[in-house]
Each structure stands twice: as structure tokens, then as C-alpha cells.
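As promised in the previous annual report, we have extended the structural survey to additional targets. Below is the entry for Odorant receptor.
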Amino acid sequence: MAFAGFFSRRQDYFDVNLKYLFYVGLWPREDFSRSQVILYKTYEIILHILSLIYVVTTSIGTYQNKQDVAIFLSNLDKTLVAYNFVLKVIVFVVKRKHVEKLIKEIATSGDRISYNQKRLMALHVIIITIVTTAIIGAFSLLALFKMEMIVEAWMPFDPHKNIINYFLATQILVITFIVPCSFRSIAMQGIVSSIVMYLCEQFIDLQNKIKALDYSKANDLSMRIEFKEIVKKHMRLMRFSKLLSTTFKEFFLVQNLAVSVEMCLNAMMVTMVDREQKTLLASFIAFLIIALINAYIYCYLGNEMIVQSEGIALAAYEAPWTSWPPDMQKDLLIVIRVAQKPLSLSAGGVVTMSMKAYSQALYNGYSIFAVLNDAVD
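The corresponding C-alpha cell record, generated without further manual editing, is:
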């Protein structure tokens, strides 16, 4: 019953995602009264401050341990994850009005989303939240079991003085990271992924409608009207796709840079850290898995968007166009030419989010690891 609302057939496109964003202080409601707006803004600012506290304290802790290479690299790895999350939050807050405009246009477009797709949108954020929390929780429990700091961070007291100070420091780190950094990142990933899922489903719907066009003199007028609606929808989806890519290009750039640096750091750390330092090795693996999961989701969805947008050209060619009037054949040719240029997600114009980019990142990471491993041996 707790998740009944998540899978309601009557829910809007992005209900679950917008609720998630709302709970983590990234999506104020339009129907708020003045006092509610002030309270929510205060809540949002508090979460911003908590995330900055985590970044600052762990950065100082990293600097304080610069003499110990293993701890320094481990802390740098964990702090990099927070930098990634916080920078994406900043980008999202700056571009929030553009995201709101895009979601409103999608909601008023009249496009239908299947129940299974709505369910997938909801399941996505739930599963990612559970998996990410489980990975971080497992690593944190290992650190607690060994009475070691989850992350070396500056505190106004000595965390190692007694058990009370240790647990207080741990609670501060958890409070400043889980919701302000981790859950906010998942909420943003959820809304971006859901928009891409929507676009992919609509591209597939267009392909099916184009293939189903069957001309005859009896249905000349109705088919022309239907073909016109298909072209209008294609133009609308192209505009949505370009707006999505433009709005989140800095977001994807931060994601891509963070994963690249994460791969390099982990390659260095695995070759340099003593195998007996199990907690450090566990932290490397935990945060690397989180980074790879996030990168895979973005790259897979970006790749799917390219494939489905290009699929419209193939669907148009496979339509029974030989029986169409010459003027409609010319219009179909224009659709084919336009659809041959795939719609994609760009990481700041540097790289296109696709499985090719993901594979290249993995290959580069392994190459760095192999070189460093040979150098150490």
C-alpha cells in the first residue's frame, strides 16, 4: 500500500520524480502560500549549506592527510563524488526554470504514455535509491565495525578521542551527505531519465504510426490529416530533445568529467594501496560502482534516444509510400532527411552520451590501471 500511489494509472507523467525532487528541496510547488514558499526556501538553503559543509570538511580532512598516500587518495575519491553531486545540484538549480518549462510543455502536448512506462519511471528512482543506499550503507557499516572514519573530515573536536565523539562525527557526515548530496543526485537523475524515456517511447509511437499509413483514394483526406499530425509531433519531439540537451549539457559535462577522473583515481589507488587495507579497498570499489551505474544509465538512455530518433527515417522508408500521391512522397522524403540526423544528449559539446562513450571510458580506465600496475610491479 505504501507504493500504491507510485503505480497509479491516473498519475501524471512525472509525478514520482517531481515528488522526489520536492522532498529533497529542488522543486517548490506553484500552489504554495507566501509562508510556505519561505519555509520551503529555508529548507532548500539548509540542504545547500549541509552539502557545502560536507565538501569543505572532507576537503580539509583530505589536505590534512596528504602525507599518507592511501588515505589521501581514498578521501579524494570520496570527496570527488560529493563534488560531482553538488556541482550537478548547482547546475540544476540554475536551469530549473528551463526544466519546469519543458515539463509543462510535455504535460500539455497531449502525448500519451503507457502505464508500463509510467511504472518504469517510478521503479527507476526507487531501485536506484535502494541500490545506492545499500552500497553506501554496506561500506559505512564496514567502517563502523572497524571503528574507522567513513571519510576523513575536519571536525571541531577529535573524533578518535572516545566513542561518543566518533559516533557524533559519523552522524554529522551522514546528515551532510545522504539527503543533501546522494538523494538529490538520484532525484535529478530520475527526472532526466524519465524525460528521455518519454522521448524514446514517443519516437517508437511515431515509427508505428508512420508504418501504419496506408493510402487509398477513399481515405485521402483523413490520411493527409494524420500525416500532418505525425509531422507536427516529430517537430515537437525534436524541439523537446534539443531543449533537453541544451538545458542539461553542463549537467552531463560534470557527470562525464567526474566519471573520467574517478576511473583514473581508482586505477591509481588499486595499484598503490596495500591489499590488507580492506576498508580503503572497499571504499574504492563502492564509489566506483556508484559512478559506473550513474554513467551507464545516462549513456544507455542517450544511446537509446539516438537509436529511436534515427529509427523514424527507417520507419518512413518502410512505409507503403509507393502508392502515395507525389506531393506526399516529397513530404515523406523531407521527414526521412530530417530524421537521418540523430537527436542526442551532449556533455557540454565535448562528447555525446552513448554506449560508445561509456565503453571508451571503461577502456581508458583499464588502460591506465594496466600501465600503473606494470609500473608498480
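Strands lie at 346-347, 351-352. The longest strand covers residues 346-347. These points will be discussed at the next consortium meeting with the crystallography subgroup.
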